[in-house]
Specification:
By secondary structure, the protein is mainly alpha-helical. Helix 4 runs parallel beside helix 5 (about 90-100), helix 4 (about 70-90) packs parallel to helix 7 (about 140-150) and helix 6 (about 105-125) packs across helix 8. The protein folds into two domains: about 15-60, 3-Layer(aba) Sandwich (Glutaredoxin); about 65-170, Glutathione S-transferase Yfyf (Class Pi), Chain A, domain 2, CATH 1.20.1050.10. Helix content is about 50%, strand content about 5%. Strand 1 and strand 2 (about 40-45) form a beta hairpin. Strands 1-2 form a two-stranded antiparallel sheet. The protein is globular, with a radius of gyration of 17 Å. The protein has eight helices and two strands, in the order αββααααααα. The structure holds glutathione (GSH). Glutathione binds near residues 20 and 83.
């Protein structure tokens, strides 16, 4: 929303006290999870669904979702990776460190290691600093936050120079707004 200057208001449920498990929140998202947006008569949950909605409603969709069939499918593939390997790997590791969630650590570390090495190789072979095509797309936005915050879950990025370059390329975009670090956040290592 910041990158496309889309005005919005943030409402933060008191998750520590289970506000997102209330009947009211369940009427916004049956899975009782954040994020959810309301936009006029549209109520929508799921970060990738929200990203795609905002692009179609308010931004240039061929720019953000790919200009042709191949680029569009490559962007979609990274949205799947963000909901798959990124969520099951670095994001899950961070949940344990930051929020005390119980995870199956060997599986989380294995998924994270595979994701990092595949993404590093992909970026090393990419003609641009971004995941798909020559400029930032929804693929980068979907992958950015939990990759940038991977060190908060004890997943080091120090051996992945192309991933670090990619993070910096996103952070250098006009109007970029970072996800706030958690209180116990480690510096990026
Ligand atoms: N696929 C969903 C996953 C949403 C999700 O896992 N939300 C977490 C916070 S990032 C949540 O609400 N957790 C609280 C809970 O599940 O009780 C998305 O990408 O939006």
């Amino acid at each position: 929303m910041a990158l496309n200057a889309i005005p919005f208001e943030t409402v933060e449920p008191d998750m520590a006290n289970g506000e997102h498990k209330s009947e009211h929140f369940g009427s916004l998202n049956v899975f009782k999870q954040v994020p959810v947006i309301t936009d006029g008569d549209v109520t929508l949950a799921d970060s990738n669904a929200i990203l795609v909605y905002l692009i179609h409603a308010y931004a240039e969709s061929d720019y953000w979702l790919g200009k042709d069939a191949k680029e569009k499918s490559l962007v979609q593939r990274w949205l799947s990776v963000s909901a798959g390997e990124l969520a099951r790997g670095p994001a899950a590791a961070r949940l344990e460190y930051v929020f005390g969630a119980t995870i199956h650590e060997p599986a989380v570390l294995e998924v994270s290691a595979t994701l990092l090495s595949n993404m590093e190789a992909h970026l090393a072979n990419s003609a641009s600093s971004f995941l798909v095509g020559s400029h930032v797309t929804a693929a980068d936005i979907a992958m950015y936050s939990y990759m940038a915050h991977a060190p908060e879950g004890g997943i080091s990025l120090s051996n992945f120079p192309h991933i670090n370059n990619w993070l910096k390329a996103i952070e250098n975009l006009d109007n970029f707004v970072p996800m706030p670090a958690s209180d116990i956040a480690a510096a990026r290592v």
